[in-house]
Inverse folding.
């Protein structure tokens, strides 16, 4: 449970400490990739809570979604269509749905725990 | 369980790095200093020159203050008058002479034979020319015997080019340009020889003849009252600021 959070903090630390920066032109791609990554992350958390978590699906989903999102954005730039909006929309909606499911599961767990305590 | 968590952790580390990089990229939008040694040297030189000029100005102001303080009882009026004269000279209300160039705008001779219309000196042409002269270090400029000061307007009124209300219709038109010293005059002469203004005038069927004045030339004083309706007193806090 705590290991992933620690990992996130370590990642943030590494990112801020190293003087690594991407050119401005690619900032758009990174932002869309981050959105995809967040979507996958919350999807993973949800799957974890629903006990359907599979590492293969999670890891492949992570990289595949990022590549797909960045690829869409790239294609969009070259076609003159704002295709990255499709990715933003899809990932945004999924992000909200996943977080809603996580919230419900946590709430259900919490209430059942309370009921158990009361029964005891 | 542990194996599961490792994959998750690696992914979260990756997400963390991405987030941090994105944060930094978005935040760091300020322009990097990409000047090389020569540019830096040049900029430094410019700043030094500016500093020298400012120091000179400070000294003259301090002298003036001292003068005021010394003569506070004796001849206050004279000091005030000298300051007033100085300011008048600076604004352009006095005649001024010095080394410089004489530019003459004339119609193209051949064109007269063919019979096509002789061009008109448009305000844009004049403005461009004056801007160019100022860029090359002109101190005082007069166009057709009218002094150009900071608030001079060159514009088109009913198809007649007017400078501060005086129409410019007759050709040849003579422009007098005074610069700091003779070296500057020569430099400006050379620069004007290859200036694009000559071509611009040629498009309008006019020639721009540039001559280096052998003797000192004199520009007349600005002879109208200066209107300052839009001027405001400078904010005390921003005093002494320089771009």
């Amino acid at each position: 449970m705590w290991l992933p959070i620690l990992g996130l903090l370590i990642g943030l630390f590494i990112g801020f400490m190293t003087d690594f920066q991407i050119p401005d032109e690619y900032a758009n791609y990174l932002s869309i990739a981050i959105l995809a990554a967040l979507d996958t992350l919350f999807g993973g958390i949800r799957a974890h809570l629903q006990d359907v978590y599979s590492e293969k699906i999670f890891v492949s989903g992570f990289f595949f979604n990022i590549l797909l999102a960045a690829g869409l954005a790239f294609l969009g730039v070259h076609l003159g269509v704002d295709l990255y909006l499709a990715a933003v929309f899809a990932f945004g909606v999924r992000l909200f749905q996943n977080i809603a499911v996580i919230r419900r599961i946590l709430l259900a767990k919490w209430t059942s725990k309370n009921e158990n305590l009361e029964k005891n | 369980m542990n194996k599961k968590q490792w994959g998750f952790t690696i992914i979260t580390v990756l997400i963390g790095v991405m987030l941090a990089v994105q944060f930094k990229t978005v935040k760091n939008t300020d322009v990097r200093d990409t000047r090389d040694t020569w540019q830096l040297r040049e900029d430094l030189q410019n700043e030094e020159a500016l500093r020298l000029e400012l120091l000179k100005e400070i000294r003259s102001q301090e002298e003036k203050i001292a003068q005021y303080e010394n003569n506070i009882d004796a001849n206050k009026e004279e000091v005030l008058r000298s300051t007033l004269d100085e300011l008048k000279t600076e604004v352009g209300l006095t005649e001024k002479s010095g080394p410089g160039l004489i530019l003459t705008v004339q119609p193209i001779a051949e064109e007269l034979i063919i019979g096509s219309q002789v061009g008109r000196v448009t305000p844009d042409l004049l403005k461009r020319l004056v801007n160019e002269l100022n860029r090359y270090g002109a101190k005082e400029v007069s166009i057709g015997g009218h002094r150009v000061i900071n608030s001079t307007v060159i514009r088109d009124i009913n198809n007649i080019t007017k400078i501060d209300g005086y129409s410019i219709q007759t050709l040849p038109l003579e422009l007098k340009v005074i610069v700091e010293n003779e070296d500057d005059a020569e430099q400006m002469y050379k620069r004007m020889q290859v200036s694009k203004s000559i071509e611009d005038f040629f498009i309008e069927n006019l020639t721009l003849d540039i001559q280096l004045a052998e003797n000192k030339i004199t520009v007349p004083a600005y002879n109208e009252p200066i209107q300052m309706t839009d001027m405001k007193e400078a904010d005390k806090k921003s005093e002494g600021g320089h771009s």
Remarks:
- The radius of gyration of chain A is 18 Å.
- Chain A has a mean pLDDT of 86.
- Residues 13 and 19 of chain A are 11 Å apart (CA to CA).
- The helical segments of chain A are 2-17, 27-49, 55-79, 84-119.
